[in-house]
Amino acid sequence: MCTESKSAHYLHDDGSLLLVFMQVASPIPKKRARIEIIPLIDIMFFLLASFMMVSLSQTHMKGIKVALPSTQVPPPTQVKDYVSVRVGAGNAVSFDGQYVTDDQILPRLFQLHAANPNIKISISAEGMARHGDVITVLDKVRRTGIQKVGYQIRAAQGGPAAGPGAPGAPGAPPPPPPPH
Fold this sequence. Notes:
- The structure is a single chain.
- Strands 3-2-1-4-5 form a five-stranded mixed β-sheet, with helices on one face.
- Helix content is 28%, strand content 12%.
- It is α/β, with parallel strands linked by helices.
- It has a domain at 82-151: 2-Layer Sandwich (Nucleotidyltransferase, domain 5).
């Protein structure tokens, strides 16, 4: 009975043998094919850019070569914007390093003012120049109509006007030498 009960599943009603097929799941999952759209778009953009570059490189610019006349431009005239006037000992006056006699100072200033009405004059004096000579040059500059005048000065080198903390003033005296 035991055998009959086991084999009963395989026997048909009329006693013939019945084969039953079992469906067993595969350990490898079955995948359906998918078309990825993102890589497809990337490839299409690459092809588009490639075709554009190739078509642009094959285009030849055709035109007529024309020899245009060149213009001969003279070098621009240098209009002085700044002039340094230095007064030395004995009323020696120089304009940008060129010494000028006393009777040529006023015509030279008029010439500079005519070339550039906004010219800037910087007046400096050597240590041995007289104060009156510097004022005379300043009066001549004002007489020509030049309005922009500056003065070049240096800090005092010691003396009663320069305090201990003033620039250019001597520092504290050196300490005495150590005893032997």
